[in-house]
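Working notes for the structural subgroup meeting. M.R. asked for a predicted model of this chain before we commit to crystallization trials. I am recording the input and output together here so anyone reviewing the notebook later can reproduce the run.

Input as submitted:
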Amino acid sequence: MNRLELFLQRLIQTPAVLVGVAAVRGSVPREVGAWMAVFAQTEPQTLGTVGGGQLEFDAVRHARSLMQKGAASGLTLRRYALGPTLGQCCGGDVQLSFEPVSAADIAPLRQRLQPVHQPVALFGGGHVGQALVRVLAELPFTLRWIDSRGEVFPRDVPAHVVCEHSDPVQGAVPMLPAGVRVLVMSFSHAEDLDVVAACLLRQRQQADLPFVGLIGSRTKWASFRQRLLARGFTEEELAQVSCPIGVPGILGKQPEVIAVAVAAQLLQTLTPR
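Returned structure, recorded in token form:
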């Protein structure tokens, strides 16, 4: 269960104060939209974070004082100068909102707090693919998990994951939504090559895939490069493929390590350069 659904489930049993980052200036620990729930009862008494440290300690204390005073509704704002007020070295200003909420607010809260997820298509249900699904479960992505072997998918998958059997596997590429980030890591180099070729063909026709990543070594990419050139793709088109996949400098080859490196690379694609 994701953080939002856990919050709403607990809200059925006990009221809370929803603390949100309403505005920021300068260097601050969290972004606008970050939130934390402070509950009147149940353990743990907080869920989520607005930045930790003294800022969060004071925010929790203020939220509990509101509950003790019986504040039933209405949103209030409280400004924190992190350096002068709290002694934190960030140096910026944070404005937090405090909003008493209860079970009656569940529907609008679900709509308001639902995070924006970016679509990812993951080709491959092997060890790295399964590790990557677990890593991405708490990150801002929806996942379309595709393999030519329908039996490889686990019975239970995280929220925002849809499993899809496609044979041939590259047949799923034309059906992907615009703006999807593609990760290629099937059990077969032949399948990997066909999926990458299908992605490059789609890029030639539609140019709507912001990221295509291929698992493998530089030797694998050198071989793929020659084969793709032979299929008629240009060097400029091949430059759209990231291989080896993952942020550089991470040397481990365990599936979980590769998954973290790939997830970090995906997060980089969300940051304006």
